[in-house]
Amino acid sequence: MNTKIVLVITLTLSILISCNDSKKIVHLNNDHQKAIPHWSYSGETAPEHWAEIEKNSDCNGKQQSPINIIHKDTDSVPAKTDLKILYTPTTLISEVENNGHSIQFDFEAGDSINYKNETYYLKQIHFHEPSEHKVNGIIYPIEMHLVHLNKTGKITVIGILGEEGNESQLFEFFESFLPIETGKTKDIHQNIDLSSLFLEDKHYYSYGGSLTTPPCSESVNWIVFKEPIILSVEEVIKLRDNMPLNNYRNEQPVNERTIYYNY
Fold it and tell me: Which residues form a coiled coil (predicted)?
């Protein structure tokens, strides 16, 4: 065979092999990008690893949530006037979604609370099973978070612990929209009466903390009610079956923070 022809064939094969290798490298790089770990509640992306995998988060901060509230270590203050619950029987839920971390109900503009002379608007409610906050080391079967924002984006979260007992009409209403698959959303646009929680008559703990999911943003006002609400075992199980198993963050150090008991 002519030497020139052999050289041309060899060069062509080298280029083709090089292109194929490049495509493989690009494919591997794309796969690597897609495989960047996302936070979860188990395995290598569980809460104890959030600070590592969520690089720009506050997850390794000094004012993190949730915490174990030890009643004897709190500062008692007669400050129930700091919190005014302004929920009405005509609160409108816009939709429910299973975001892969919890069941979340999103609200249309309307209901609000007034905390320390600032108005915070109810944005969404979601659930953790079992509870994230502890009171005197006690872990409750479930915890409901009512997330509020003011006009500047500051966050106040109300945490309500749930104890097993009789059926709850409120939870029966929530669960009437379940099951819902991960990543799916259902439109609701129905009224819900959150005033049935009777929060005005209950005592609460308050402290400065963070979101309990990445990015674990700090400067969050936490209000955790001391008295739990009652719901049935079946209602707890139905919520649990629609969420990741044990979708709670581990207890965080209190550090130098003051926890208040508002009576």
Answer: none
What pLDDT band is residue 81 in, cutting at 50, 70 and 90?
Answer: confident
Neighbours of 147 (CB within 10 A): 20
pTM: 0.85
Q: Indicate whether 233 belongs to any domain.
A: yes
What distance, in Å, lies between the first and last C-alpha atoms of the chain? 98
pLDDT digits (tens, 9 = 90+) for 223-234: 999 999 999 999
Residue 197 domain-assigned (yes or no): yes
Q: Is residue 7 part of a domain?
A: no
Radius of gyration for the chain, computed over Cα atoms and rounded to the nearest angstrom = 25
Question: Taking a C-beta distance cutoff of 8 angstroms, is the pair 162, 142 a contact?
Answer: yes
At residue 73, what are phi and psi to the nearest 5 degrees?
-95, 0
Range of the domain at 239: 57-262
Q: Where would I find the beta strands (DSSP E) of 100-232?
A: 103-107, 112-115, 118-128, 134-135, 138-139, 142-149, 155-164, 185-192, 204-210, 218-225, 229-231
Catalytic residue among 32, 38, 71, 101: 101
| CATH code for position 252 | 3.10.200.10
Residue 11 lies in a domain: no
Q: Catalytic site residue 101?
A: yes
- Rounded to the nearest 5°, which phi and psi values hold at 17? -65, -40
Write the CA distances from 120 to 84, 140, 205, integer angstroms.
10, 27, 18
pLDDT in tens, 7-28: 333 434 343 333 344 333 233 2
